[in-house]
Write a structure and sequence with these properties.
The protein has 214 residues and is mainly alpha-helical. The protein contains seven helices and no strands.
Length: 214
């Protein structure tokens, strides 16, 4: 049996990390819109009988299949969504690694510094998407974290913003280029807010909950 190559090993690690983060995102998706703490209780619990799930029964992805999608304590059905979130997050973490940091053949060939940023934003998007699907809301805390991470990332990695906008960065004006990148990031945030708020307003108008004159 041959030794696994480092690029393949790191890709596998990124997928495992994604599945683990996905397990935590399930906690966020369930608790945050219900006003529950994501820290207390620290262990995940069955949504049916509130049984605190021990570590050996809370292995991402595998536990759902080993338990046939049921709670070990009450045999209540556990939605496949929990497993799907873990699989999806694992896939997206792997995709981000392969896009920004390496491949199955080599590592650190592109923008490895963006991996952590992309992983963080992926986590926020997954949590926001599934909360929105179930409750038709996106908690302000998730939006706020995304805004903060976006602004900080624009300042630390201005070349990404410049490449997206088709601008050239002058090495002699590095600090100025960072400020420009933050400015474009703030402009993007403002545009996004206007678009989303417009969707809300016109949605209420179309569904008869708001009149044009009000």
């Amino acid at each position: 049996m041959g030794v696994i190559e480092l690029p393949v090993f790191l890709a596998i690690v990124s997928a495992i990390l994604g599945a683990t983060v996905g397990s935590f995102l399930n906690v966020v998706i369930y608790r945050l819109p219900r006003g529950l703490s994501v820290n207390e209780p620290r262990r995940s619990f069955c949504p049916n009988c509130k049984y605190k799930i021990p570590f050996h029964l809370n292995i991402p992805i595998l536990s759902w299949f080993l338990l046939a999608g049921k709670c070990k304590n009450c045999s209540g059905v556990v939605s496949f969504r929990y497993c799907f979130v873990e699989i999806l997050t694992a896939f997206l973490f792997l995709l981000a690694w392969l896009t920004f940091a390496g491949s199955f053949d080599q590592i650190f060939y592109n923008n490895p510094q963006l991996v952590l940023v992309s992983w963080f934003l992926i986590s926020l998007l997954v949590a926001a998407s599934f909360i929105d699907i179930e409750h038709q809301i996106i908690p302000d805390g998730i939006n706020g974290c995304g805004i903060i991470v976006g602004i900080i990332s624009a300042f630390i990695f201005p070349n990404i913003v410049h490449e997206f906008m088709g601008m050239d960065k002058s090495p002699s004006q590095e600090f100025s280029s960072r400020i420009d990148a933050v400015g474009w990031s703030l402009a993007g945030i403002a545009c996004g807010f206007v678009i989303l708020y417009s969707v809300v307003i016109f949605g209420k108008i179309l569904f008869g909950k708001k009149s044009l004159s009000s």
